[in-house]
């Protein structure tokens, strides 16, 4: 975690080099806010390396040899380690994750303020959608009763317009609004404003700098929502006409975390217990580390397949934990039970 802290600190220093008003204290604060989230990402590796270190030490002191000679099977002396790993996984899921999500949300706000300078955001509820955008000409606030096609088509739209001094300049009502590159296409439009009569138009084009990507990315990131809040947010997202696949994948992957911790203990045992009789400790360590990184790489690929629709979301989230568990079990059965 110290290494991760230093790498993240240096990266933020690099990004802040051409920015004004970002002090060293702000950068340190951002790194500390992000650290719990990074710790969760590294947790499987921590379990893997911790397990390998434990079993290698027991091997070096011949304690495992004595345990085996007493008639205790490998499954019996692995059980406490797996139990501890599962307990840590559950603690991370239920207690640490909500704290980490809140800190990550704070990190995201600071990143937006100091680095990205984003001026648009989206707020969503089961019955309403709000979009806010700041352009050179002023501020626009868009309210809609419903959304389709990931926010491209809006229904029952009201647009409130303000100038650069935040003074209200007009209101646009439309039955539908569809987003095209560079503009909204409005239908059945009613235009009103201070001290002027209402105007009606069948169609109208309203310039905008918003894009589909910006709208979809305006949702709260899955990593800023706790395990307990994700189900309600996913339901709200889908009721409003948006896809909740990204958040559902994250939720399922969190639930698979404790099982993944057990799997890493099994993999650690696979690459450390054999050194008792066969040597080649260095090769075993390299093999364990390589397995961890291959697992991490393949996990990202499987998650991408889930988000693309090639795999069911629940299956994509569960495959990494299930696969590495089966690998560990198969290797232990082969090595220890013939």
Automatic annotation (TrEMBL):
Membrane topology field: Multi-pass membrane protein
Subcellular location: Cell membrane
Keyword Metal-binding belongs to the record: no
Keyword Cell membrane: yes
Pfam families the UniProt entry points to: LptF_LptG
Superkingdom, taxonomy of origin: Bacteria
Keywords: Cell membrane, Membrane, Transmembrane, Transmembrane helix
Regions crossing the membrane: 21-37, 43-60, 72-96, 249-271, 283-305, 311-333
Primary location: membrane
NCBIfam families in the record: LptG_lptG
Protein name from the UniProt record: LPS export ABC transporter permease LptG
Originating species: Sneathiella marina
Gene it is expressed from: lptG
């Amino acid at each position: 975690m110290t290494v991760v802290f230093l790498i993240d600190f240096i990266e933020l220093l690099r990004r802040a080099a051409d920015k004004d008003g970002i002090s060293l204290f702000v950068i340190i604060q951002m790194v500390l806010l992000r650290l719990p989230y990074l710790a969760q990402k590294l947790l499987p590796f921590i379990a893997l390396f911790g397990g390998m270190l434990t079993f290698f030490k027991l091997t070096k002191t011949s304690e495992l040899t004595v345990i085996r000679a007493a008639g205790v099977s490998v499954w019996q002396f692995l059980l406490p380690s797996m139990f501890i790993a599962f307990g840590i996984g559950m603690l991370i899921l239920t207690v640490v994750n909500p704290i980490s999500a809140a800190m990550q949300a704070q990190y995201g706000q600071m990143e937006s303020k100091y680095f990205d300078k984003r001026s648009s955001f989206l707020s969503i509820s089961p019955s309403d959608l709000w979009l806010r955008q700041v352009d050179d000409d002023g501020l626009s606030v868009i309210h809609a009763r419903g959304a389709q096609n990931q926010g491209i088509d809006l229904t029952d739209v009201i647009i409130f317009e303000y100038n650069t001094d935040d003074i209200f300049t007009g209101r646009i009502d439309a039955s539908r609004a569809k987003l095209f590159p560079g503009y909204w296409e409005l239908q059945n439009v009613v235009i009103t404003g201070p001290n002027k009569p209402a105007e009606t138009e069948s169609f109208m084009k309203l310039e905008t700098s918003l894009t589909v990507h910006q709208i979809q990315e305006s949702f709260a990131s899955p990593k800023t929502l706790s395990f307990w809040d994700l189900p309600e947010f996913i339901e709200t997202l889908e009721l409003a006409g948006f896809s909740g696949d990204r958040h559902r994948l994250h939720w399922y992957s969190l639930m698979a975390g404790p099982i993944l911790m057990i799997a890493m203990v099994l993999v650690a045992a696979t690459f450390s217990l054999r050194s008792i009789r066969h040597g080649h400790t260095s090769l075993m360590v390299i093999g364990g580390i390589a397995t961890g990184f291959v697992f991490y790489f393949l996990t990202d690929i499987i998650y991408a397949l889930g988000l693309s629709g090639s795999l069911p979301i629940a299956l994509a989230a569960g495959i990494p934990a299930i696969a590495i568990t089966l690998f560990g079990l198969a290797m232990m059965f082969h090595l220890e039970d013939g």
